Each structure stands twice: as C-alpha cells, then as structure tokens.
Amino acid sequence: LATQQDLNYQLALGLQNNRQYRKALKYFEENIGPDNPHMLSLYQAAKTRILGGFEPDVAIKILDRYIQLADKNSQPSIAGAYWRTGIACEQAGDTERAITSYRQCLKYDATFSESREALAKLGVVD
Question: What end-to-end distance do the CA atoms of the chain give, in Å?
Fold first, then answer.
C-alpha cells in the first residue's frame, strides 16, 4: 500500500512536470519535516525551486541538508545534488560557490558532463 508520503510525492511530481512549481512544493514540503525526511521529496523541493527560478538560497540549504543525509547509494546521487547546488548558486549570483559545487560534483562523479559544461560556461577549465 502506498503511504501518504508516496502519494504526496507522486502528486508533487505531476505538478512539477506541469510547471506548477509552487503547488508541487506544498506536497514535497509535507514530506520533509525536521526528523527523518523523505529523501526524494527533500531533493525535489530544492529542484522545484531551481526549475521555478525562485528562492535559490532556500534550495541551497535544502541541498546542503540532502548532501549531509545522503549516502553513496542515494538516488539522486550526491554528485547530482552538488550539480543542482551549483545551479542554485548561479541563480543566487554566487559564482564562486557555484564553481566549488560543480567541482565537488566531479569529485563524486568525474563523468558528470553537466558539471563540466557548467564550468566551461563559466570560463573554468579544470
């Protein structure tokens, strides 16, 4: 049987896919309380803000929490969370932290092409 968290997550994904970001966020956030957050909802709460182009600073904090709680088998990966952190940092105007985040992503996954492309776009060649 599906749990309420599962239902919230699926509903939020549907809203996110339809670009109803603020509505999706409501359901993701119901799943990410202070104790034992639903990890996929935690990640998606940040991603939704990034896709919607709002609250990048909040997205960064959420991704920092995701990275702290994730392990090497987490999906989305820690590398992916660092990549998204880089995007949020760019949205927030913090280019230096974006570069650091993209580099962290590559430390976890050297084949993560999106981070390489983001660094190149910023004029960084590693």
Answer: 48
